[in-house]
């Protein structure tokens, strides 16, 4: 039991030493990471807002093309 406790204590100490050795992120790096995350989120939101507008434009253009085809058909009939 004592040996197990000692081993656990040594393991915790080693983990703590390893975590202290890892380079820590500076405040500037943290702030930069937050700003980048916010920019990515805003970019994704704007993409979501653009997509419905594109669908509407495609639908409208499709209707206009169909109308123009009808006009061309009518003009051909008139010529004949």
UniProtKB/TrEMBL annotation:
Residues 1-31 are annotated as: Disordered. Residues 51-78 form a coiled coil. Residues 1-11 have a biased composition (Basic and acidic residues). The keyword Coiled coil applies. Keywords: Coiled coil. This is Uncharacterized protein. It comes from Romanomermis culicivorax.
